[in-house]
Protein 1
Amino acid sequence: MWCWRLAPAGAHLLAFFYPRLKRVISVELDERLAESLTAKLGNPPNLAVVQADARTVDLSQLIGNHTTYKVVANLPYYAANFIVRRFLECECPPTTMVLMVQREVAESMTAAPGGMTLLAVATQFYARTRLVCAVPPTAFRPSPKVSSAVVRLDLLDSPAVEVSSPDSFFHLTSFLPGQERSLLVKAFAKLNLCLEIMGRRSDGYHEVRTVMQAIDLEDEIEIATSDSLSVKCNDPALNDKENLAWRAAADLARKAGRLPTVSITIKKHIPVGMGLGGGSSDAAAVILALNEFWELDLPLASLVDVAAGLGSDVPFFLWAGAALASGRGDAVEPLPTKPGIGLTLVCPGIRLEAKTARLYSRLTRFHFSDGGLTRWLVQNLMSGLYSDELFHNAFESVAFEEFNGLQEVFDAVEAATGRRPHLTGAGPALFLMSSSQEEHARVIDALQPHGAKAYFVRTLGRNRTPSPVAFSESKNTHVFLSCGEN
């Protein structure tokens, strides 16, 4: 029996399984996690840890000559349908799949006739489905704003209905009435832990080196079936075709050769115009969600192409976690990250039109650097060391001249903490590591005269959600997978 797990639970879940099973194969996307698992568990002979992406890993190579196996997975919203279909339709499918997914996905998989969506038809064509239990947000740290559920799929010996071609059957089913669906996804903010400007390029852009880190401040996005493309937002200023989410849907549809028929509703929690990447994150979340929602199954390289066409930092949000970005900021290399580090984020009540262009226009060659500060930060991050003293932003030398009132906010934070905050992106948001909730409270008090707002946030990893699922003992083989944010 095999189990595939998506999103890490550290070594705890594997420690439960491997003494009880003949063989366990854990496929982990996060390189550092993959390296640490076997070390933490003492390198048991019946445990194999493979560093790979569940969306692209070669199933036939992993399955090998094991004809009987089971899958256990905690599936992220944007990959659930695609990965489940991979297993259901492969040459050697599992006997059972036990999955934790977003609750509405679980309810869709297990829907009864009369309320079945395309996902229900596709799943129940191959398997008997059963909703096992609900998983509340409090089961996770940090707690998401959506509920999850565990669903069990027991594979049928043959498809539930006899058809000449499964592909033709599913294609026809997708056009039947009553296929209205929706999907709730999250888009996370980012911080620039380090941002260096290395000079001006021949194409007119600036060469940058930056380390970006995702944090748990998030927008909520609902994707729903529609006969046209629309974007609605609780910020009326973002209800137009210039919204990056609109462009993301239109560009992805163009890439896939289909019409952009979808309704997108955005509930903004990430402050706009602060250097937190909210619009870019929304666009990346839409790209990932629509790749599943429209069942495009486009490879990651194609999604990166679409993201890069929208803005230099959009590709980062396809991975989130921590990453080193270079070039214009669109060449992204994921980095190991340490989730759960507390930070105080300060958002001044300051808005500046065309802020990025105005800040760049103030830079001279004396503001340029060689990337050494970024390299030093990366070396420390690789060792798990985070420190305010390692952070840097080249725009800090010119931002206070452009943002009226930013100096007063900066001084208030420094006085309350005894440490210098740092600018993120082109600002005006500031951040610093938070030593305690008490220190964060002092910052809030210090900011009251300045009309600025403070948030207590935590760093996010690419895989941060535990999988609180227990199973009966069995001396069989299990496989676990890891694949991105849940």
Note: DSSP finds 16 helices and 18 strands in the chain.
Protein 2
Amino acid sequence: MGAESGLPFNSAIRCYKNDTLHTPETPDVIPGMVTVAMPVPSQVSVQDEIQLPSQEAVHQSAMRYFEEVHSIYWLYSSEKFYSKLEETYRMPHQKLTASWSCSLYSILAIANNGSPYPDGPQYNASPNEYLLCAKSLILSVCDEGSLDSVKAMILLATAMQSHGFSNAAYLYSGLAVQIACSMGLHCDKYCISYGGVEKEHARRTWWALFMFDQDLSLRLGRPSAIEDSSNPPLPSERASRTHLYHFFSHPTCLLTYILQILPSGPYSPPSYLASYVTLCKLARNVRSELYKSPTLLGQQLKMKIVDGVMTALQDWADTLPPHLNFSAPAAPFFRRPIAALHLKYHSIQLLICRPFLFYSLLCRKQSPGSAKLQGAEKFSAICLDSSERMLGILQTMVADGLHSRQIALDFYYALDILQVFLSEFAVTKAEKQLESIRQSMKVLQSIGSAGCGEKMISEVHFQLMEWGVLSNSSNTLDSLQGLDTLFPALHSVSDFYDLGISIDDAPNAMFPDIDTSTDLVGEAMMRDILQGPVQ
């Protein structure tokens, strides 16, 4: 796992307790965040046993999917999707393609994952069973090898990540890339005979896959499945003045004009796709320049490289269209993707500055006043500022109901900033950082009450108990009202001794059916990034 993943930084911070950095006996193997075991395959074909629920139920799940997931990763024209859904139920005896069935089962698995609908229609299976149905169709989806196959694999990967199966999500995302490349999406050679509209759909699908692949591979610290050389044109979102003039001068070219416009729909604002893709490319460059190259080549990180990526990131912010500013008025469905765009921007700043923050943490304890510490302070301050801004965005999302419990994106952002605030609190013991920790935990509680976060929030709680931020002997627990109701059986670290469980075995005791160990390099990995630390 690469150092660019948030897990090595999180693990390094977790090792810093009581003003001391505790190095594990085996430093190359440290506890990772929670992963869960895959469901046991059914002996009988789940696909034959579980039919799709009522049209009302699927429609309700689709609405949640479009609002929370599709608004970030565009896969379907909403009009085309709902028309196809109506046709599916209007002609029940018509044989559905494996890709379409897999997509519907994946959407049901995503939208119903741990967050039931109040007074909604009844579902004929659990989210986990819908996930198994989607998974059982993988071979048939690959055999079809169509654009719908790519969409189905992206949706299945999203569902896997939503249920906590990150490794499986990474595998299926890579499979989606292979299917897309086999059809020429990576070089814009997708079936020209289908026409311009279908080609625009193919471009949007490719770039949605690119965004998902980059986000997932960055989160896991693993190589992206898409090569840097794959760079087809972005889909056109509006006609230029030249196209308008050409249309009005030549009315027979109506079709040509229409093909220049393929609206992103009611869930994604104009220019969102291009802006997010640019951020993904910037993040990819940061991974290469700051993490991979210096570490692999045994070189010191040069400050001009850091300044270069920071300048490129600032240029993106300076050229962002005004309607995509977080404070700008926006349509209700546009607010979530705009918020996600700014969370992505600040998360890249964290990606750049986190190693400096960790180095600053070590220097302030071991070599206060050193010249190297002064060089790291600037980027540490940027890291803290970005974390505070991300916290403000997440709080707004929670207050306005814009957050999602169905996908891991929001939870991971909140987890990232919590670790940053903990690292600063380790040195300053300031009330400001403690308050930021409280607020971050409240956000995590809101997002992690269902879905992917529900499987990980107990480990976060355990970390805070290790740090002494949550305990019966402090007043901090009282200020985090409601957190103790999530964990009624565990109120302090001493409870583990009452149960006869050692602190070292506590994570395994809390999650007996969950694999909590991963081959990672934590504190040592963060040190390697900043050899010297910079020139």
Note: DSSP finds 24 helices and four strands in the chain.
